[in-house]
Amino acid sequence: MMRYRLFGQTGLRVSEVVLGTMALREVDEYRRVLGVFAEAGGNFVDTATAYGNSEELLGEVLTRRDRFVIGTKYTLSRDPSDLNAAGNHRKNLVLSLENSLRRLRTDYIDVYWVHIWDRLTPIEETMRALDDVVRSGKVLHIGISDAPAWVVARANTFAQLRDRTPFAAVQVPYNLLWRDIERELLPMAEAFGMSVTAWAPLGQGVLTGAAGQRTDPAQFSARQRAAATAVAKVADELGVPAAHVALAWTRHRSAAVLPIVGVSSAEQLRVNLDALDLVLPTEAVRTLEESAPFELGFPSDFIANYDDAARAYGDAAPRVDAPGLPRGAAWGLQR
């Protein structure tokens, strides 16, 4: 049964998985997919200006607008011949938002995402422009996708100091093969109380074998093959599809993570939604993570592996416990 999470620190209630619409191209199938998602209790739908005609299709099939949390994105080019038709500056933001509102046939966006960090536009300028559209009522909440942790932290600190709307969430890739967010982005999001919507939770099909339908498996790296084999092994032991195992892994590490389940058919969505009740046993998690080794890198590994807390922090340091951490774990960053 679908459960719900709070979206960042906004109080907004969103389903524990997000419906990804990038692969949906036909209106009748789009309608069936949205119906299956709603029937299961899903309410959070993800789209973007760059996803072909996804916004138009969603606007056509969407009923009971108030029951859904719609997220869409801007940044990517609307017109390759126009320099100002891309980026995170105010001009592109305003024009992109008006286009999205028209395509979605709505007068407001629940979550408006910066699609990718634009290094040419100061983040302070972007935050001012986003705050303006929130104050106008055309946007309720904001998020940022595919940006460094320091940029997001700087943006939210600026918003806090200037009483502007902060980012409530980040959108990033996360799966057994791509764990980079565990270095900086996930700890930052947890510290700020942000949600993390995770794209490519199935490793673009690699972790389920589905990528073999599009790509020669022989082209996979040894690490990819090992991870896919481990997922298949755990799935066989638990008697569930490989996709369930891959999705469950993205959800086990942090309550902040909301996987984006991208589908091309209603039947595919039904199968994936069955993963909601799967909780991976500790041994299964160990098997999966040993198949695709990952290192946090400096400074996390350095701090976590520092084995002489007393020398660094004083004789009584090892006896200090911290809220939210297991006993004796206050000096390490390992999870």
TrEMBL record:
Domain NADP-dependent oxidoreductase, chain residue ranges per copy: 17-291
Pfam families (alphabetical): Aldo_ket_red
GTP-binding as a keyword of this entry, yes or no, is no
- Claim: Oxidoreductase is one of the keywords in the record: yes
* Keywords, ordered alphabetically: Oxidoreductase
Q: Which PANTHER family match?
A: NAD(P)-LINKED OXIDOREDUCTASE SUPERFAMILY PROTEIN, NADH-SPECIFIC METHYLGLYOXAL REDUCTASE-RELATED
Name recorded for this polypeptide: Aldo/keto reductase
What is the source species?
Nocardia acididurans
